[in-house]
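Question (not urgent): is this output format expected?
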Amino acid sequence: MASDTIDKTVDVICQHKKDGTMIPLKIRLTDEDGETQDYRIKSYRPVTRIGTFELSNMAAGTVFEIRIVCFDKERVLTIMYHDHDRTWRIHERSAGNRQSQKGG
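Got this back:
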């Protein structure tokens, strides 16, 4: 269901290495109150699939699974850089959808 995912453009600060790879460093999100918050990315890893969707089928871009800490809680997000329009997008399953996929 569409209501089970968040998919929107976001601001990301990243490092571009000389070999052309990117390292995401910070992400800026808007909270429920409309306030902008910056988060340091604690860890990241490039990914090739989201759930059952194979990313090789996607238009040119780079995808990372990242971990941030928000209100003393770790969150795992997927961010995608789209080469064609030079934007970062965030993809996150809602808490209810994550639990149903875990069998809970």
